[in-house]
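Dear Dr. L.,

I hope this message finds you well. Following up on our conversation about the binding site, I have prepared a predicted three-dimensional model of the protein together with adenosine-5'-triphosphate. For your records, I am including the exact sequence and ligand specification that went into the calculation, followed by the structure tokens. Please feel free to forward this to your student if that is useful.
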Amino acid sequence: MRLVAEGLSAKRGEDLIFQDISFEIAGGEALVVKGPNGSGKSTLLRVLAGLLPAESGTAKLLAAAHPVERVGEGAHYLGHRNAMKRELTVEENLAFWKAFFGDFAGGQGMAVDAAVEAVGLGGIAHLPFGYLSAGQQRRMAMAKLLVAWRPVWILDEPTAALDIAAEEMFSDLVMAHLARGGLAIAATHQPLGLTGARELRMAGFAPVDAGSWA
Ligand SMILES: Nc1ncnc2c1ncn2[C@@H]1O[C@H](COP(=O)(O)OP(=O)(O)OP(=O)(O)O)[C@@H](O)[C@H]1O
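The resulting structure of the complex is given below.
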């Protein structure tokens, strides 16, 4: 499986935020998107996830087993917000997402209780999501990635509000995802501990070509 982005440009409002971004990553690989505040990292991730239209260019998911897909079809997007209902329990939230997403071809999501254990929060899944601390809420949002299989994980500042143990836990989860043949694209200011990850450096309004990512 490969994710191929070619000549991506995007606007916010009337402003062109970036142009000519091209990259390619394969199953088992991670791409870390770096750059100063406002350089367009979140915008790029939202374009890849299909949440914002690209001004030009394409991003495709190519797999031998099935036809070309829009990246968003095969992706989980973890944004700045956790996308959980505060009044529902953790279990109810995760069960909703599991049923809503279903599994993408080629994999199977974890059971809700296994996902809760995997993020180290067994024992509090009966609580309303709104009762959890900020870091616990973020961990639960990560469990959302586990309950339904998506080959691509698109992660925007995934470790904000996490303690060091949770950062390590998350890096292990991403590495396990890559080991299953998944792909990950993460925008972050913090080191994520993703051994061997490639880097895309956003410079604000400037073309980014193959020479700028490694
Ligand atoms: N809805 C919008 N309308 C107009 N401009 C916007 C909108 N949303 C974001 N922008 C602008 O787009 C630019 C890129 O924002 P973006 O959130 O992608 O940056 P970022 O690199 O993720 O920043 P940070 O590191 O602070 O999270 C910024 O200059 C921002 O002000």
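In brief: The chain has a mean pLDDT of 89.

With kind regards,
A. P.
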